[in-house]
Amino acid sequence: MQPIVNAMTVDVEDYFHVSGFAGIVREEDWPRFESRVEANTRKLLEIFAAHEVSATFFILGWIAERNGTVVKIIHEAGHEVACHGYAHKLVYESTPQEFRNDVTRAKNILEDLSGNPVLGYRAPSFSIVKSSLWALDILAEEGFRYDSSIFPIRHDRYGIPDAHRFPHAYRTRNGNRLIQFPISTLRVLGCNFPMGGGGYFRLLPYAATRRAVQGLNKTDRRPAIMYIHPWELDPSQPRIPGPVLGRFRHYVNLEKTERKLHRLLHDFSFQRLGWFLDELEGNGGTPGA
After folding, report:
1. What gap in Å lies between CA 71 and CA 75, rounded to an integer?
2. What is the pLDDT of residues 194-235, one digit of tens each?
3. Does residue 154 contact residue 161 with C-beta atoms inside 8 Å?
4. SS3 call for 81
């Protein structure tokens, strides 16, 4: 059997945008912080180029509007430009109209800068949960073909623990169709455990991540959907005071991320999410069917 190709994704936001600091850093304060996202994105692009990896970059509209270079260097390097919303507002804290305004504003900015249609969306902090599934209809109505916002785990801020674990075609409440790319989990004793990236990638030993991806590829014959943030390659970023849990989630093992990422990209094959779309849409939503 041929090796499974996995999906690499990036949530392009700066260190001061994260939801864990939202109670301390207000949106109106963002311009006062030192922006490090372009330098960190360039570093990430260099790493991907060294391993010949194509990735999907979910870019925050606020960043794109102020620094179009970030979008252009991603696009010119051959990666996929996708949408992370405009203002990093949690979906379940938005009204449907606020959400629609946020995503269309970001989508328009990204399409103008890249010159290509934006097909994919990921909610800030995976905030499409059971109470905000209405957002999927809005995404379909606004021209998105896929979503990668659902994390099938239990978490204090996000997650739908009984959601489908693998890429699939999803029928929305209003009958619209979207391809879903859930963040990857490991199934143990009837429970889903996170292993797809972010703080979980930084916290867990690399051997645990490698075994989890191997299990998905060899046992389930499914691709792993991985994610990372540019700020996770930046152990020198300014420290923001905040709750102990939030600081732990954000700063744990930042100095180890780059080395782990090189190992991951060496050990497995990765592509952008858009690479999977035609197959999924053509066979009813099941890879390899």
Report:
1. 6
2. 899 999 999 999 999 999 999 999 999 999 999 999 999 999
3. yes
4. strand
Q: How far is CA 23 from CA 130, 178, 243, in A?
A: 23, 33, 10
**Residue 66 corresponds to which tokens in the numbers above?**
């102020």
CATH topology of domain 6-282: TIM Barrel (3.20.20)
For residue range 240-283, what is the model confidence (pLDDT) as tens digits?
987 888 888 899 999 999 999 999 999 999 999 999 998 787 66
Tokens standing for residue 15:
């260190």
Q: How far apart are CA 260 and CA 208, in angstroms?
A: 11
User: Residue 4 pLDDT more than 70?
Assistant: yes
Count other Cβ atoms within 10 Å, centred on residue 4: 19
Query: What type of residue is 254?
Result: L
Do 176 and 151 meet the contact criterion of CB atoms below 8 Å apart? Answer: no
